[in-house]
Amino acid sequence: MMKRILTFGLLLVLTVSYGQKVTGDYEKGTDFSQYQTYEFIGWQDDSDSILNDFDKKRLREAIQSEMAARNFELVESGGDIALSLFVVVDEETSLSSYTNYYGGAGFGGFRYGGWGNGFATTNYSESDYLKGTLVVDMLDRESKELIWQGVASGTINEKPEKREKKIPKAIAKLMKKFPVDKVK
Prior knowledge:
This protein is 21% helix and 38% strand. By secondary structure, it is of the alpha/beta class. Residues 1-18 have low confidence and may be disordered.
């Protein structure tokens, strides 16, 4: 059942643009102006097996768009930057509680500080959900050293009709952490 849900599409955090947590880190002192091209070297550990072909394409196109907006050219091989992706999905459980208090006047009443005969009920609820994480690694092709890493994580959204719009927005949010600004 879990595999079926995951293969239904990219249900990751990428479909949630506002509740998404994004971070980015890079090797300080890296001269990003020396890079003009990049190549996509694939998915780490075959993590893309949980994605459908449509969402793989949406992800790649969103990344290509963001990289092109920064004047990076995608090449088949021999790019200055090697770009790879990694996807992780974890099952999480959320526990919440809510207490209702129903007070009463009891002996002595409220006016005289007496004890009350009220009661309280507490309701607990558990919700299972999926948390997805996308990791984008960029390596210097020559030295094979990591030069930038972006991580996006959040709750999975299962509405396939919204993914086409949400994936580019989520990648744009993630790429704001990349140390090269869009060219105007």
